[in-house]
Automatic annotation (TrEMBL):
It comes from Parahaliea maris. Transmembrane segments: none annotated. GO terms for cellular component: cell outer membrane. Keywords: Cell outer membrane, Ion transport, Iron, Iron transport, Membrane, Receptor, Signal, TonB box, Transmembrane, Transmembrane beta strand, Transport. This is TonB-dependent receptor. Residues 1-22 form the signal peptide. One of its GO terms (molecular function) is siderophore uptake transmembrane transporter activity. Its main location: membrane. Residues 45-154 form the TonB-dependent receptor plug domain. It is found in: Cell outer membrane. It is a multi-pass membrane protein. Residues 177-647 form the TonB-dependent receptor-like beta-barrel domain.
Amino acid sequence: MKAVSRQLVLLPLIGCSLAAAAETGQREQEQVLVTATRTPRDALRLPLSHSTVDEEAIELTAAVHANELMQRVPGTWISRGNGQESLTALRSPVLTGAGGCGSFLMAADSISLRAPGFCNVNQLFDANLEQAGRVEVIKGPATALYGTSAMHGVINVLSPEPAEDPLQTLSLEGGPNDYYRGAYRYSGTHGAHGIDLRANGSTDGGYLDDAGYDQQKLSLRHDYSGSEWNFRSLLEGSNLNQETAGFITGYKVYEDDDLRRDNPNPEAYRDAWSVRAYSQASRELGNGVLLQVTPYYRNNRMTFLQHFLPWKAVEDNGHESLGLRTLVQGQADQLTWIAGAEAEFTDGWLKETQARDFSPNQPAGVHYDYSVDALTAALFTQLSWQLSERWTLDGGLRYEDTRYDYSNHTGDGPACAPEASACRFFRPSDRKDNFDDISVNLGGAYEYRPQQVLFARAANGFRAPETAELYRLQAGQQVADLDSEQITNIEVGLRGSVAGSLDYSVSLYHMRKDDVIFQDADRFNVSGARTLHRGAELALDYRFLEQWYAGLDFTVAKHSYDNNPPLLGLNENIDGNDIDTAPRRFGSARLGWRGESATAELEWVYLDRYYLEPTNSFQYDGHNLLNLRASTALSHGLSASVRVTNLLDEDYAERADFGFGEYRYFVGQPRGVYLALDYRLGG
């Protein structure tokens, strides 16, 4: 812990020295952030931690998986599973299960990818990250414009605006293990109408035996500028058909050339599709007041084999939502204010069945079959007060009400025959649940030199229990009496630009989470765990010698238990232990060259060691990887690019775990070479 503390002290000193490097400087073109307020806002003066991955970086990375792109964001690690599966760490350890995905808000154009209470750990594969306009990330509890799930942060995938001049692009790409991807985009503005159509499809034969996937995504955006009303509408859909590979077991088996391609679950699969649509209508009401009204629709469905459980049941789940969001924004003298209301109704369901008897406690047949009608409604306000030319004060308040109406469509009680000694599955009777939550945030920013900002912030966040935590009970638990999880965050930071060539951001945070939901020694879902999250995040972007650039995104953090919850399978005190899958250091660095018609970039990715279970008795040693990317123009409109992943062909694990008495790994792929041709017409 002493080493971590020293680094936490050094990082702000680095930021101070960078800020002091330039006494004066001219303000460059203002950088904006949309996610915090749902309207463009000066990103420099926002008193919260945020990062942006722009369209240029998205195109250069050409990510096959969200993991590759989000390595550019300090504090964020998207742990890669098999195929398109993933788990998220955002100012947190990698979190799993219903509570894990419920701790982060994943959004597209500021609308959650999944309905509150119905999240999925893999939900980022629903978003069209491959062709996004940019990705914005808020770290820590978000502003009052976001409610449940925006605890550890928000990942918001923003669609690109239609181009002013019509353009078309076509890309074809091939890589290892029969990987192929094609992408098309048309974008243009014609009078008052702007159209942006993006589509991509990929197929992957899979590095592991009997594993691979096919995936398709489509996004259609229409903008209309009228005399009184402006409209932005988006229709987006995705489809995934995946043959899934499970963990391979054995200590450091990822280093064994004879075993690293094994797939112990060749029968596993995951099929998922999603559709989302919204239309945002906005108009000026006079005196600088802006009104936004946004109705939206969401439909998700997923079917998969639970290969990670010995009895291998099939889960079929889905939900359909209708929502309405209204927002009014105005300005009076030095005060900018936002007030709004939103409501969302969701019809969700889940069914779990098992084809064959495993034991009397895990029998064949229907384990769960239920539906939940959910209603979430909220009122919020967020204020920004320009106290002086240099001082900005921000504050916000949100009240949110979540209601669940649960209906069981199979027999109440255990799913097993009466002679079962310890039935695994219990179906509660029909019931209703209600959760009321409030979040508050207050922050200030001080521009002590031009483009040099010091900020401080205090905020809390929350999440209502997920429906699966409340109604998918085990071992005879008849009612899950759960509270909403709560998190409090205090942070300070520096950000700015030095001499027009160096952009930097450094932040220190201290977060505590209460009423954490977990599964106890009786397999009951209960509240009461506490966790502590402390860390520092550093981002540097430096441009030099006209065409060269360098970047660093680095995180130092400690995520630990703050009490001794009676976790399932544990008989020792874990208070103060590291939470599993929480590396204390990780990050990436880049060195690149960008000319008029060519680009090259070398990337270093670092992941520190981490523990694999709460007693901290087993660990993964971490890894270092190098990736190389380059592109060049071949002729007018035609360009070629090459990406080499894992350049040094390191043996590593994308994710390590310890369960059922064994080390378990998702194997990292060896060196891979991807070649692409891109054709651009117009623009």
